[in-house]
Amino acid sequence: MSSEFLQLAEKVTQLAKLAQGLREENAELRRKVKLLSEENTTLAGRVDDAYRRVSTVLAQLPVAEVAEAPEAALSADEETA
């Protein structure tokens, strides 16, 4: 009976160590998720800023009018098909 009790105690100890390890891993993963979420927010803001700057520059560019003959447009369309 003493042997069974020692085996059970050892298994409980192993389970406690495993649970503690999982808690620590969970805490570390939560920290990483928080950091990555913050980085994602920062990068999304930078992308939005870049999009606005590019849109502003594109809006300032003059629009070039293309004077193509209708036959040339059809010919170009047929070549791409």
UniProtKB/TrEMBL annotation:
Keyword terms, alphabetized: Cell cycle, Cell division, Coiled coil
GO biological process, one term: cell division
Keyword Cell cycle included in the entry's annotation: yes
Sections of the chain in a coiled coil: 12-39
Protein name: Cell division protein FtsB
Organism: Herbaspirillum frisingense
